[in-house]
Specification:
With 537 residues, this protein is α/β, with parallel strands linked by helices. Helix content is 33%, strand content 17%. It is globular and about 70 Å long. The two termini are 29 Å apart.
Length: 537
């Protein structure tokens, strides 16, 4: 077709997953690949999330690529939890090291994808009006990339500045001497609050839901630890991909209530000293996320720590959670200490909701707060949001929006029935883990599936509906046995108005996922149909 560019693979996104997919498909499988990103550079979420305080809350020995020992050894990280600029520099280094930019179109958003059943190819349209076809489509659009922008009335009246943490300007935003309001206390919110408080003349924190937060215990990277990892690199990578969380630390096999109260306290103290929310939840004991008594023991400890830090009794009362600890575990140094500052005020918007944005600032049900800067730290339409922002059509003219109307449905978190040869990196119903090493693992699985299709001249691969139903049932059975489905959070979609509140993850751990899903490669992808069989069915 005139004006249409034909390639083997189209990749959407240039974050950790998208960059690896481009390299894997182009350089290892030898396919023609075109990648797209609506940003002007690589980095994915680390390109956009430039807010003050933005940094990884995963230790960097696991928050990086683990498929290439030479890359791991040559890149010298400076901090245990690197800031956004350092992570972005790393991803730019990766793009340059593997000469990936020549296959990427930046500043280009994929607006439409449609599967042509006659040709067996995907037809892709971009925001620039260009058209492509590809046999395979890989979407690395990001778990946390679709901005959840609040809809407060009156925003247009505000005479000051408004920013969202997920779309922070590239130029510096100076809040020195300004009155700042931050709405939201999730991962981004806690980081930006700690960073802005010393500069602002006054900082108002508008909190809807109190958070449990463990110190990061941030500091310089331990070179001896990194050398030990390099010396045993293959075993280390294997340990990451066969653990529950893929965070690179040793997870506990011990139930919390199987030891004495004194021993529990000592273990919690050591976990607090080590730092990191995921480490506290999974390395202290084995069942904090599934057993209410274990969870209560952990939250009682965390509440006692909060009470030791926060000086004002009323502020402490508002800051103290009353529910389970079953959101994504947060870690941040100095978060609770920030509320001891004279220039920081905590506003309880669960008790007194925000009514509107006014010319002068924010009005709640009981007061108006005059501000110069408003920061929305309201997070993301997570997991499924970015997929649904693209107009996507599979077999029979069924759109992804139609198929996922009640909830996202996938197999392995990587494919969805009725959408042949379309792969999702860390899509819905994928493992609830640290992401970069799992991105690599999933892309390796996709490469094996694509090679199987090409080697056997099968045309297409897609999950059978019954097999997808089976995967969904397995995911739900595991998820509803945990505590994560009992608390409102982005993990179950309850943070976005109108979004289906349901399970979005496989919560059996990466080790089980690795064994279960990885086996499909050697077994010839049972539960999947192929183009030729489907065409004659």
């Amino acid at each position: 077709m005139p004006g249409v560019v034909d390639v083997d693979v189209v990749v959407i996104g240039t974050g950790f997953g998208g960059l690896y997919a481009l390299r894997k498909m182009r350089d290892e499988l030898g396919l023609t690949v075109q990648s797209f990103d609506d940003a002007d550079g690589v980095g994915g979420t680390w390109y956009w999330n430039r807010y003050p305080g933005a940094r990884s809350d995963t230790e960097v020995n696991a928050y990086c690529y683990l498929s290439d020992k030479t890359l791991f050894e040559e890149w010298k990280w400076s901090e245990r939890y690197p800031r956004q600029k350092e992570i972005l520099a790393y991803l730019n280094h990766v793009a340059d090291r593997y000469d990936l930019r020549r296959s990427i179109q930046f500043g280009t958003r994929v607006t439409k994808t449609a599967f042509n059943e006659e040709t067996g190819r995907w037809e892709i349209e971009t925001s620039k009006g260009d058209q492509y076809t590809a046999q395979f489509l890989i979407e690395g659009v990001g778990l946390l990339s679709s901005t959840n922008y609040p809809n407060f009335p009156g925003e247009e009246k505000f005479t000051g500045e408004i920013y969202h943490t997920a779309r922070w300007p590239h130029e510096d935003v100076d809040v020195t001497g300004k009155r700042v309001g931050v709405i939201g206390t999730g991962s981004s919110g806690t980081q930006v609050i700690v960073e802005l408080a010393p500069a602002a003349s006054h900082l108002h924190v508008f909190q809807r839901t109190p958070q449990y937060c463990v110190p990061a215990q941030h500091g310089p990277l331990d070179p001896e630890k990194m050398q030990r990892i390099i010396d045993g690199f293959a075993a280390y990578r294997e340990s990451v991909l066969t653990s529950i969380t893929s965070f690179g630390f040793e997870e506990s096999p011990v139930p919390a209530m199987s030891v004495s109260a004194e021993e529990r306290e000592a273990v919690f103290e050591e976990a607090w000293r080590q730092g990191n929310g995921f480490r506290f939840m999974f390395a202290a004991f084995s069942d904090i996320g599934v057993d209410p008594d274990a969870n209560a023991a952990a939250t009682d400890f965390l509440k006692r720590k909060m009470a030791q830090i926060v000086k004002d009794p009323e502020t402490l009362r508002i800051l103290t959670p009353t529910d389970l600890w079953a959101k994504r575990p947060l870690c941040n140094d100095g978060y609770f200490e920030t509320f001891n500052r004279d220039n920081v005020t905590l506003v309880d918007v669960k008790a007194h909701p925000i009514v509107e944005i006014t010319e002068k600032g924010i009005r709640t049900e009981d007061a108006e707060y005059e501000l110069d800067v408003i920061v929305y730290a309201t997070g993301f339409d997570a997991v499924s949001g970015m997929y649904l922002k693209i107009d996507q059509t599979g077999r029979g003219g069924v759109t992804l929006q139609q198929k996922w109307h009640d909830r996202p449905r996938t197999t392995y978190g990587m494919m969805t029935a009725g959408f042949p040869n379309m792969f999702m990196i860390y899509g819905p119903m994928g493992p609830f883990t640290n992401q970069p090493p799992v991105h690599e693992w999933q892309v390796d699985w996709m490469a094996a599936a694509i090679k199987y299709v090409l080697d056997n001249d099968l045309g297409t691969i897609e999950p059978e509906v019954a097999f997808e139903d089976q995967w969904m049932g397995s995911c739900d059975e595991i998820a509803y046995a945990t505590l994560f489905m009992k608390v409102n959070s982005w993990i179950n979609g309850s943070n976005v108005v109108g979004k289906p509140v349901t399970n979005y993850f496989y919560m059996g751990g990466m080790g089980a996922y690795n064994e279960l899903v990885g086996g499909a490669v050697t077994e010839g992808f049972p539960g999947f149909g192929f183009g030729k069989q489907l065409a004659t069915a």
